[in-house]
Design brief:
By secondary structure, this protein is mainly β. It is about 0% helix and about 35% strand. Belongs to the glycosyl hydrolase 43 family. Pathway: Glycan metabolism; L-arabinan degradation.
Amino acid sequence: MFASIEHRAYQMVLLSLVALSLAFISPVNAAPPVASGTVGVGSPVQTTGYPIALQGNLQVHDPSVIRYNNNYYAFTGGVSIPYFKASNMSGPWESLGTVLNGPSVIQREGREDPWAPNVMEYNGSFYCYYAVSRDGTRESSIGVAITADIDRGPWTDLGEIIATGTGLFSSNYPYSASNAIDPSVLIDPKNGQPYLAWGSYWTNIWQAPLASQLTSVEDREDPDAVNLAYDILPGEDNAFLKSYPATREPDGTRPVEGSFMYYREPWYYLWFSHGQCCNFESTLPPAGDEYSIRVGRSATIQGPYVDESGTNLTDGGGTIIYGSNNNGVVYAPGGQGIMSGAETGDFDILYYHYLNEDIGLNYDVRIPGNS
């Protein structure tokens, strides 16, 4: 996820869990609860209206977790994309090494330390989508690595799928207006068509069809792309530009990123993180400006996605599902994903990372969380 501040890989996070019943809004509060005291710059949120996170024992950031053959696999952003295995979400977690055997094959700054993996299994193969980016810029690429053996590998790094800032077709819209990080892939269960979502800040979240082999955009030069979420800034010109500078947002900062696409019959859900993710060492932002987890839903995979009030996510919508709480014990939750319980008849599980003021807000915490 975007860092106009210093690299997030120096932070480690607590992966947490919340059991969900997606009747649109989960048992977790759907709107920010009233705080029990005055909060502001330099003060953690005081509310106790959200359930406390269930802390585990694995430090990760921007986690991706899948369940396969009754085991759990957790992937994290970091040098060569470390990943781990456990028979239970509470651990103990066994290191399986890294996805990449060294830096990404993508020739871009940041290739040694990829961000925000998104992992899925399809037809016996495992796909790890990841981002390579230069901090605070749109100089970014999304790549993919694959393996047939998640426990032993090897993984084959197939390199770049899309690029923004510079790179192949990066001047074509919407690459020229977006930031190619935070990948999320979903295969539409209704027709088998795979889709890639990406985006952070600038014009926020985009989506385009992938080719059937899941390793390239269907038409990279001219993708059938749609904007899924866009933060509206009061008093600003909120019209899209066709092209943006690679190092700044000329029409204001729009802190939406980290999308995760998910389907639970009959709805498609778009989860995302909103707010400042990290770098809270010296001062906290105004309460509510830090990360929170939000969601919208749609009857079709390409949207439009709307929140609980009916506001389109492209009009600044998004129902808040989970935010900072309990006097800084949980601060700035985000980097979320969903593990489906559909096959087993269980609740869906919302997992995410967060920071804990008791440990220090320049460190993320561990895996897992709420139930």
